[in-house]
Specification:
This protein is an alpha+beta fold. The chain has two helices and three strands; from the N terminus they run βααββ.
């Protein structure tokens, strides 16, 4: 099995207009699990109405045997002030 880690190139995007104080990562490698990722994100958002969605990033990676899809949800959640 070979690794592409040394050949990875990517782009870091810093968006000053998108503020977040939390994130949740959903990922899967198996076909059936990948097919359900959207529903898992939707259900999580519905069960966390206090979290205001600010951005979503979808990432796909592969090696010779597996394909992984990750959906990263960035959100803003108001937290009570500390006393």
């Amino acid at each position: 099995m070979s690794s592409n880690a040394g050949n990875w190139t990517g782009t870091l995007v810093v968006r000053r207009d998108v503020k977040f104080n939390g994130l949740k990562v959903f990922s899967a490698t198996m076909v059936a699990d990948r097919d359900q990722l959207g529903e898992k994100v939707t259900n999580w958002l519905a069960s966390h109405p206090q979290c205001k969605l600010t951005d979503i990033v979808v990432t796909q990676s592969s090696d010779e045997a597996f394909h992984c899809v990750a959906i990263t949800v960035f959100y803003w959640e108001d937290v009570p002030a500390r006393r």
